[in-house]
Amino acid sequence: MIALSIPDVKPFMSALLQNTLFDPWELRGCELNILTRYTISGVINRDYLNDQEAKLRSEQTHLLWRDVRKKIYELIRGGRTPTSMKLTLAFPKDQLTSFSTDSIESLLLNIQFDGGVLHLITGISMKAFSLDRSAEHMWDDYIPSFCKQHSIAYSLE
Q1: CA dist., res. 55 & res. 59, Å (int)
Q2: Torsion-angle region of residue 90: left (phi > 0), alpha (psi -120 to 50) or beta?
Q3: Whole-prediction pTM
């Protein structure tokens, strides 16, 4: 697990909320504090889906960020800066193969904004307990390179 501090909050938030950079990632949770607190689990409510939607989402347990990005942006935009925001995204499952391990359940990116400070914190969920930390180290190496690739300035905490 590593923590990155993002000094330029606006460009990152623009990439998160207005661009498609994180669209294929799964939403694992969101807590947004503005006038009131909004909490979104990200878990798909199967009872809400019609048959066609259920078929399309049969492999999904969580919404993709693209499914809720615009709604969250609408809650934030035009108003004051949120007092805090916590967002947990999971790396796209179809891209997990690049990490060459079958033991990974999910690779997580926690995005935390509080008091005007923005942090990215990596996390990993394994299918079973393991002393092998190679997947965690690969993920910890990947996020800074992802930031560089997408011109996101950061400093390692």
Answers
A1: 9
A2: beta
A3: 0.91
